[in-house]
Design brief:
The protein is mainly beta. It has one domain (5-78). It has one helix at residues 5-11, and strands spanning 20-25, 28-34, 40-48, 54-65, 71-82. The chain has a five-stranded antiparallel β-sheet, with no helix packed on it. The longest helix is centred in the first third of the chain and has 7 residues, at 5-11. The relative contact order is 0.19.
Length: 83
């Protein structure tokens, strides 16, 4: 499932650094894992079971910066099933 623009607006903002963030988007449960700057770098999207595990899809974010610290690349890629 490709990530839509509304979802990207929701997950591309800054969060608290180095935490897991649980969100809800439509009928999907989301779990975001953030890096030390507060950027979401992993996304688990699907249905959450009683133990809190999300079954669905897993996405990873690529962030690349140049020597001056300017963002060059910001890309989400589907990595497969999340179980």
């Amino acid at each position: 499932m490709p990530l839509g623009t509304d979802l990207l607006k929701m997950i591309n903002k800054k969060f608290e650094p180095s935490v897991n963030v649980s969100l809800r988007y439509g009928k999907y449960d989301l779990l975001l894992i953030t890096d030390k700057e507060g950027n979401a770098v992993q996304l688990f999207m699907g249905k959450q079971n009683e133990q809190g595990i999300i079954k669905g899809d897993r996405y990873a974010r690529t962030l690349k910066y140049d020597k001056e610290g300017s963002l060059i690349k910001d890309h989400w890629e589907r990595k497969g099933k999340a179980t």
